[in-house]
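DM from R.C. (forwarded with permission)

"hey, sorry to bug you on a friday — could you get me a structure for this? deadline for the figure draft is monday and I only need the backbone to look sensible"
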Amino acid sequence: MNYVLLFIIAIIAGSVPTFLKLGMQSLQPNTLLFLRFFIATILFAIIFFKKYTHKRTFKIFKIVFNGFLLSLALYFITYSIKYTTLDRKSTRLNSSHQ
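My reply, with the result:
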């Protein structure tokens, strides 16, 4: 079962550059990134609300700070996808997650 889930995640991660390129035909990179993070924030808030409501403020600050750094990195990656070819996009995305 774990291998099936890993395979599904690999397919989803491999198709991200294609969907980003399709999305950028109608949306700007900033708008696309905002929508991506907005939807993820809503979903994660619903899933993890009870788990993190009793945590200390410093722990929540660390989570928000790490989220900010990740969003900054994804902003530059998404913006660079607009100006590169599709084969270079997957290399850039895969090298940034290591």
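R.C.: lifesaver. The chain has a mean pLDDT of 76.
me: no worries. The helical segments are 2-23, 29-52, 57-81, 86-96.
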